[in-house]
Design goal:
GO terms for molecular function: transaminase activity. By secondary structure, the chain is α/β, with parallel strands linked by helices. The strands form 3 sheets. The chain has a 7-stranded mixed beta sheet with strand order 4-10-9-8-7-5-6, with helices on both faces. It binds pyridoxal-5'-phosphate.
Length: about 450
Amino acid sequence: MSTTPNSPEARDVAYHLHAYTNAKKHEEVGPLLIDRGEGVYVYDNHGKRYLEAMSGLWSVGLGFSEKRLVEAATRQMERLPYYHTFTHKGHNPVADLAEKLVTMAPVPMSKAFFTNSGSEAIDTALKMIWYRSNALGKPEKKKIIVRNRAYHGVTIAAAALTSLPANHNSFDLIVPDVIRLTAPHFYREGKPGETEEQFATRLAEELDAAIQAAGPDTVAAMFAEPLQGAGGVIVPPATYWEKIQAVLAKYDILLVADEVICGFGRTGSMFGCETFNLKPDMMALSKQISSSYIPASALLINKRVYGPIRERSGEIGTFGHGFTAGGHPVASAVSLETIRIIEEDGLVERAGEVGAKLQAGLRSLADHPLVGEVRGMALIAAIELVTDKEAKTALPTPGQLGAMVNANLQEAGIISRAMVDALAFCPPLIITEAQVEELVAGVRAALDKTYKELG
Ligand code: PLP
């Protein structure tokens, strides 16, 4: 850390409580302050360059210097910098974006509702589901199914649906009725001798049994990321989604697809729902929707959800939910331009093509003594780090090995993210093949360095 008393780093330590950071350790190590961005690279305050292999927080799909987004924001700022969507009011960009999202959805959707973050979209989905059950005269139909290692955000309801210990520990969450099931992670959860398909069948049976135990009439919805992101980039096993959806359909349980990471090309299709053939009733969208140049998120709902909400809001006189900045005109304009660029530049197909190189490159590290599993698809991947391949275990303190490799990567100029002992990679959709090679070579070197350090 810079020792200059009045440096930005010193002032950051003095005044800033960071998100997802060990506050005590931060006072010793200080921040990495990023000053500017260019394509897939960012530069810190001292001019050091990093390949941003996480797209910030899985989100800057178009890289860090897309001028068209700046121009779209400027044009909209100059024309109408703010308007809201309450009490029958609105503006052109939000109407255009609603139409675009509903028409590009991979399954029939009816309406878009606008929020500012993934967590708000998920909270909104939960509130809509409860509102709907009440509207249908089924007030007991309120329970929600999630999977272990799910990440759905951090507001009170979203954090309750998230199933990672750090999001629950010490927060005294007001937990709604949540049923948590096994994460679809074959490497960790598969039983000896079990095939992927048998594993998927077992998880569908677990779901069926959990619904039976809870009482089918009390279960409203399942929230799920098509591919779990922050829980460790967990690609579900073959036939998983087909079997899970069959169980949900049997009991008339809604499916909410949390596309906050998968949406807009990440898995090689425009939406994760297309990659895994999901037929959700609601889709939560954020992050790459605006390439994160400005906060934006949306919730798409189909007729099954919209119909009862329409009737009930008619009776009550309003749908009493909304955010001051939801559907913000500048965020809407930037989102429309982002989607236009993704479509015009063929970035979804590109994610598949360049992503195949990323997957092959990372899989070439599978024989490394510190690599337990390489997983992912298209431009999202993770390496599960181990010190004992047979036992699938890492160092005694969970997260220690992940932190070591991550620190070595950062020193070498690559930003990844350690999720306990799995390293995540989710580079901008615009990454080139040469930059993928640079990334893979950097990961190999960081693994070698860490292996030496461990002696
Ligand atoms: N859902 C998923 C799948 C996410 O990955 C995230 C954030 O990483 C969220 C929801 C929460 O989004 P936000 O951080 O914008 O509230």
